[in-house]
Design brief:
Radius of gyration: 17 Å
Structural class: alpha/beta
CATH architecture: Alpha-Beta Complex
CATH class: Alpha Beta
Strand order of the largest sheet: 3-2-1-4-10-6-11-9
CATH superfamily: Spore Coat Polysaccharide Biosynthesis Protein SpsA, Chain A
Distance between the termini: 24 Å
CATH topology: Spore Coat Polysaccharide Biosynthesis Protein SpsA, Chain A
């Protein structure tokens, strides 16, 4: 099964390079890595081009003009460039455990999308990681929040992972799905601009199209670098879009992936 790792980013080249470094060291490399760049300046392009010189990754830079937070459209545009059967989404501030891709492939299952969790780094820990370019962590490191999420255990994962159709804890920073399932609902809704709810609305349409949720615990591990929170000024309109899809049991959005896949 071919896999595309899609990484969202915006003007954070230092963090992105650590994410790419952790991707390069995966026990099972993705078939391709696509940077979903939401309008970063030239520094990010330079960092990616420099990384390419010594990397064996198949690396594609998908860029769109900076018109504010448009993660939904950026992902659609990036996934339109993919050639794989299976899509794994992360953000450009997520350092990956070396078995992250392998674990996602192991948990892939027809009729399901996969939702993972994350370990949070404190602000001071993040600063130190960026300075030292360190991407290896252990359970007893200082500066790790919800560190139980870094326990990697097949037995615990079997016992505590579950299948349901809840929206609780939906996060596209650690999510995977079959590309055909993505196409069948027209991907993310491009109407979402500004932070919030584009991932939940996407999942609602997946579930309305009989693609169930599979939440994985104690596996597919990633480490989230600290950053300032995005502004919530668009949340009211985005909540309206989400509620509309819930109330209408939507399976499709009119302004989505097809815009970039013609």
């Amino acid at each position: 099964m071919k896999t595309s790792l899609v990484i969202t980013t915006y003007n954070s080249p230092e963090a992105l390079l650590l994410v790419l470094k952790s991707t390069q060291l995966q026990s099972h490399l993705p078939s391709e890595v696509i940077i979903a760049d939401d309008g970063s300046n030239e520094d990010t392009k330079k960092a990616i081009d420099e990384f390419k010189k010594t990397s064996s990754l198949c690396l594609i830079h998908s860029w769109q003009e900076d018109k504010g937070f448009r993660a939904a459209q950026s992902r659609n545009k990036a996934i339109a460039k993919s050639t794989s059967d299976y899509i794994i989404l992360i953000d450009g501030d997520m350092i990956l455990h070396r078995d992250f891709i392998k674990d996602h492939i192991d948990h892939a299952e027809d009729g399901f999308f996969v939702q993972g969790s994350r370990v949070l780094l404190t602000q001071s820990k993040t600063k130190k990681v960026l300075q030292q370019q360190k991407i290896n962590f252990n359970f007893f490191n200082f500066g790790l929040k919800n560190r139980k999420n870094m326990i990697n255990s097949k037995i615990l994962s079997y016992l505590f992972s579950k299948k349901n159709n809840s929206l609780l804890g939906i996060k596209s920073c650690n999510m995977a799905f079959y590309k055909n399932d993505f196409i069948n609902i027209n991907g993310f809704n491009n109407l979402f601009q500004g932070w919030g709810r584009e991932d939940s609305e996407f999942v609602i349409r997946l579930m309305n199209n009989n693609i169930k949720r599979k939440t994985i615990r104690f596996n597919i591990i990633q480490f989230h670098l600290w950053h300032n929170e995005n502004t919530r000024k668009s949340i009211e309109f985005n909540d309206f879009l989400l509620k509309n899809s819930i109330d209408n049991k939507s399976k499709w959005c009119d302004d989505g992936f097809k815009k970039f896949n013609s």
